[in-house]
Queue: 4 jobs
Job 1
Amino acid sequence: MTTTQLPLGVTLHDSATFANYVPGINQVIYQTLQQLIVSQEQNYLYLCGTEGTGKTHLLQAVCQQIGQQGKTPIYLPLRYFCQVDVSILEGVETRDCVCIDDIQAIVGLPQWEEALFHLFNRLKDNQTLQIISGNVSPQELGLQLPDLISRLAWGGIFALQSLDDDSKIQALQIHAARRGLILSDEVALYLIRHCTRDMHNLMKWLERIDYASLAAQRKITIPFIRTLLTELTDNK
């Protein structure tokens, strides 16, 4: 899978675009983000939701689209950065767009909480577009720095919801087609009903199925997936 390189050694998956995102019940959030990129009438947004609701996909899609405009976005997944020195945030405010993913990863880390508070203020002063994601709302994160909580709650807060089965089927088929795979409705539904149901894990299963079908030179059918699931379960 090809990726787009960003500063700090972070990569964007080329599949993480607005075109490849199935909004389902999250249509308002999906449209708001695209409008925000165009109008920039608002320069801050907070997305929350459990794993697999598409937060990372949307943040990376924003960066992809900003980059296509010749501007300089930066994507910061805090689950990977929280163990390094906060100096990594120096100069970030010079970017045209800053997307901070998984802010819950720095909860209880005083240096990181303070560093993000100051970065937030610098970005606000520069009127830089910033989008932050967390698994819960700012007030529920458990942050120790009250000023950071209040900053995070300043703008619009949107809660992403899990897709229904029809939308999950559509999403699986879109990503399967990118891999050159044909995934029927029946096969996609079988996958949803017999694997972990969140989209993050379903996409991992799709990748495994792709490799397995290629190795076995088999079409993707329910019997093939049933056998694959059984083999992987037995090998645990």
Job 2
Amino acid sequence: MARKKYYSDMLKIDIKRAMLTSEGHTNLEIATEIKSNELLCLFGHSGAGKTTLLRILAGLTKPDKGRIIFNNTVWFDSEKKINLSPQQRNVGYMFQDYALFPNMTVEHNISFAQKIKDKKEVEKLMKLFDLDILRNQHPEKLSGGQKQRVALARALAAKPNLLLLDEPLSALDIDMRLALQYEIKKAHEILNTITLMISHDLQEVFHLAGSVIMLRNGTIINQGRTEEVLGKKPEKQIYNKYNV
């Protein structure tokens, strides 16, 4: 029984997908397993396939072939013609460009993600991300950092099975960045699920991620605990080591 539970609490990925990057055509080929409750960072150079992988997991981009299984539910299987919709996967996705609804206020953008409407939860999220005074504003009136906080709050509002964060803190100033690093970690623990995050900030990776997947040209070149993959070397040495 324990063995069965261990294998059910896992994201299994074995996919292939052709990609066109700034350096030309390449293939994303990912085969890995991620345990439940893991906060994992995808790390690598631009065009390595990080965002493409998140979009595939969210159901927004279809792999050419392979399988994706989450908690014993098949999300994608090219041979069996299975491809669950984003809604069926219950994934929270914070896009790099935020993808906020321009015709909705901050409050409505956040509440829209809820499957069961709960105004108290929306209030908590707005307070958590310091959005109270912006509740009636539309995205066009917000700064980049404010949009980023709304997008992060909306991703959490759905209480997702899988949380995907694409550069979640890149547009924030240092004080808000440090504050929200703590909130992301706390939210991950509250959700009790898998969180996959893309980041190029090594301090952020060390602070948040328990483990790292290093990508290069669409393939995994290293995976493991953060300190095992990145060590404690200065930032410049790490970047040179992995050519990212």
Job 3
Amino acid sequence: MSDNPFVSVVTEHTFDDEVIESSKTTPVLVDFWADWCGPCKMLMPILDKLALEYEGKFRVAKVDTENERELAASQGIRSLPTVRVFRDGTAVDEFMGALPESGVREFIERHLPRPADDHLASAAALADDGNLQGAIALLNESLEADPDYLKLRLRLASYLLEAKDTEGAAKLLRSAPLAAAQDPEVKQLRARIELAQNVDATVDIQSLKNRVEQSPDDLEARVALARCALQEPDQLDSAMTQYLEIIRMDRGGESAQQAQATLLQIFESLGAQDDRVRRCRRELARALN
């Protein structure tokens, strides 16, 4: 095993101290490995090299899953190697398999403190105080200094979307690194932008509500009303309800197919763990059967 000062062997008895507690001050990458695992052995020298190169900006904790079966089971490890990063006492990200050095480096960079983190905190305070434009201006300035920081780019795009600058948010996301395309946050934000781009802000919502009340089978009015509801985050449940009703009424027609596609975008924008997504997926399954 390595004599690297930034790499340590961790057991069930030392995990809390060397991973959970240590990650409250320095990010810790936990490498779950086994001696019989070829990809694990390919990954080890990469982690060793980068730990030395970064000189303690992160630490590597190695868990031999053959000797620490209970620890691996408690962490839900099902594939080797699994590298999981802990920050502030919590697991925040992971990858499985032997990535090339460039991929491991990119993974590490996502979780190291950066000067822009102070700007992110300040921008969040400005946005909370209602100064959304101030938050946007601050993050635009910060992005010029650190254009490769994905977290910064995503936060700025989210603020632009909140400020109704849909095109600005879309442009910012299009210029994100290609490697980030499958990042869950990128996919969610892209879905939110696509939904916003389909909204017609000039439509009178009250008139649409009146049309639906007077003619419940008016699919055109329901579609327009659902799209309008997407403009406001607190109306998302209403939009989802309208789309479900369209699917029930149209039963495989063009409006139902479009409604289903939009619901899937909404699910993507919210994330699979959102309670609204779980509930609506069940209702969607019933509506389609």
Job 4
Amino acid sequence: MDYIVRATAANRQIRAFAITSREMVETAREHHNTSPVATAALGRLLSAGAMMGVMMKGEKDMLTIMMKGDGPINGVTVTADSHGNVKGYVGNPNVIIPANYAGKLDVGAAIGYGTLTVIKDMGLKEPYSSQVPLGTSEVAEDLTYYFAASEQVPSAVGLGVLMSKDNTVKQAGGFIVQLMPFAEEEVIDKLEKRINSISSVTEMLEKGMTPEDILTEVMGDMGVEFTDKIETGFKCTCSKEKIVKALAGISKKDLDEIINDGKEIDVKCDFCNTTYKFSVEELKTLRKQYQ
């Protein structure tokens, strides 16, 4: 089962989250039939999105993260709610590029240079939106920069997706560790040393470490206290009714053209790739209802 843990350490001078997300990322891979590098890119952002989603307080709060670069993946988009549900897609799921110098999947090259945008819809008149330039485009470092630049919260983000030989997802997960404004210098130094000494997220997961183990490893002797455990997963909220609403937004002229073609149409949800079929009769009914 995929889940997120929430914790504090060093007398609440640090707050932290960690996730195990293999099933979530594998579900996304199955829905979108992503190539290994696309699975890694989407998987990292889904894992981060799920953790950032549960940081939000409101029942109906929604978070969207978009990485738009000039690389062949043609962008990665993830949406999460505050209950651990997350969904996402990449522009080009079939992208295949050579491994990087370390022999690893080159997520940075797949995404390319561009911008990271975070949109939080917290039920106010206007959603909060913030944009930062992509640094490495490897996802974790870009989110670390986002937290520092846009939210003024010094953070460490670690994310990883490990693929099996048959291109299914073997391991996926990550952590986000943040310093509170009143954190003492000694705690900051200690945390930096710990972060620099730990192995990669996928190595820790391969050893069988749980999210609890990962945060214990990151915090060392700083007294980690677990406060919450939240189930998480890939979940899309699309439905035929919602697609009907979207279709109702197209012009009379376009709808008439579709009807006059006399063929049923397929409408696909970007987030989960589910296809909804609409017969000519259904489209005619829609034409009457909404026009």
